[in-house]
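fwd from M.: "can u put these together and see what the complex looks like"

so here's what she sent:
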Amino acid sequence: MDLRLTDRVALVTGGSSGLGLACAEQLLAEGARVLITSRSERALEVAERLATEHGDRVRGLVADLGDADACERTTTAVTEAWGRLDVLVCSGGGPPSSSFMETSDDAWRQAFDQVFLGPVRLARACVPLMEPGGCIGLVLSNSVYAPISELALSNGLRPGLAMAAKTLSDEVAPRGLRVVGLVPGRIATPRTVAVDESSPEVSAARNRTIPLGRLGTPEEFASVATFMVSPVASYVTGTCVVIDGGALRTY
Amino acid sequence: MDLGIKGRHALVLAAGGGLGSTIAQTLAREGVRVTAADVDAEGADRTAEAIQADGAEASSVSWDLGDIDQGRSTVERLAAEGRPVDILVNITGGPPPSPVSGQSPDLWRKQFESMVMSVVTLSDAVLPHMREQRWGRIITSTSSGIIAPIPNLGLSNALRSQLVGWSKTLAREVAADNITSNLVVPGRIATPRISFLDQAKAEREGRPVDDVQQESWAAIPMGRYGRPEEYAGAVAFLASEQASYITGTTMRIDGGLIASI
């Protein structure tokens, strides 16, 4: 199936590892041009590594999504490189784990800047640059639907981002732009694998509750994301796609 | 993207026209061998011939979905002929437009047989082969009415909602055998069925059909009906190897029509 992504321009945040990196790799494999951003210098290293295969179709930029200036640097970098923008895949590390009662005001504010305001600000900056047929894919979490224990920050903030995405989808649909929520369950990213290895018994018990009986691979998540942001999914907007091996218990 | 399903065999219901026909042809372009099923035998034949004309493999079968025994025996016959079903695309015809109140028990039962029981028994019939090979895809097309009831499609709203509980439960039961079960939800896709419903509404309300259609478009954030290919692409993706971690979900292809997340 031709996803019609050849030469389209994609911006992938959190693109130096985990889900973001897997998305960047698949977008490149489908012929897109990709700007990878992340908080650390790893964005540049990963872009350099990917460039050995994909040449000047990939670039890297160090930019922290939680930082308002970095947002402008990011959109400037993408327009200066390729003069257009078709796809935003907004990924990034989740907030730290904590229970509701032990989460301080400062922790909430910090997580809000990172998990909620960062993606909102970037989406707002990208929309005016996007061509009709473009798509914003926001990487969310199962916590949009059901709280995950000890992840009070994610549980509190991600549902708000999902509804902000729905609001944006209504506003930009007449312009031919789409907004899709991408909802991963437990995917074997370096972070998840590290968490599982630090508490093997708890993790094994948790992973047994996944009907498919295993973690998803970053590639499984990324192929769904790539399909959803592609022109082939042109009538999908204002909705969330769940990639969780059946883990979510509710409809 | 290679969907990794070349050579798989799909049974596509209601493939004589509308969404089913487009889905059958989309799967065939990915190298899937397709059996097109429809109560309208000529329609099923036309779809199979169109696929064959493109140089792909296809055949047709015909029975009334309300005839549960014949559905089951058709699946068994396909398996006996060396074409067991790897991908089942459940699509059933819509019931007559009507309110949910005041309908006869006979009508409810008849529609239950063809819209729900048919899907349940056909899916049961394809499971042994899917379990044995530890790979299978069951994709069931429903309606936006399972999330937001559509006025005057009472039977559809009520009966298709039963498939929500069924598909989610099935997903958990068959996951250990690497079989996925998902629902797809069309918004308003430009099919003969939508034209029929627009026409019916125009007549009921004594308005021009263009007027009804404009009003319908205006209610969709994307401002237009979907194209059958846009729906079929998502179904083909759910059938793919890449969709291996998606199960027990409901995927909307609705142009933003449904007003909640």
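replying to her w this: The radius of gyration of chain B is 18 Å.
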